Q: What sequence folds into this?
């Protein structure tokens, strides 16, 4: 996780904030903040709700209570919403994580798909 993402998570840990208030507290541009907020939302750490024209950002319940990463089943569901990946790929990743104790993340962007090894023990 990038340090800017962690900064936004720390700000949202126990609060629900409007985009503008969050941008002010994080001391970053709105464009930059929205980029990281959408990334965190896709990972399941945070979510937002629309109240009129205003977005209210908040940590997901699982993140608030445990401070842990998003559960694999939720992560799988989020991933399936955006891209089709053969279920055997996800099963192989889970097997790797069980056997090695290291996390593997899938990064999909305009340049393709990459596997990133999490160097912290899971």
A:
């Amino acid at each position: 996780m990038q340090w800017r993402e962690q900064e936004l998570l720390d700000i949202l840990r126990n609060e629900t904030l409007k985009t503008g208030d969050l941008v002010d507290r994080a001391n970053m541009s709105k464009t930059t903040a929205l980029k990281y907020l959408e990334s965190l939302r896709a990972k399941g750490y945070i979510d937002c709700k629309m109240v009129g024209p205003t977005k209210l950002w908040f940590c997901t319940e699982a993140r608030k209570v445990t401070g842990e990463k998003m559960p694999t089943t939720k992560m799988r569901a989020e991933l399936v919403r955006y891209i089709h990946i053969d279920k055997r790929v996800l099963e192989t990743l889970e097997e790797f994580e069980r056997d090695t104790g290291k996390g593997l993340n899938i990064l999909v962007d305009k340049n393709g798909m990459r596997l990133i090894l999490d160097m912290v023990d899971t």
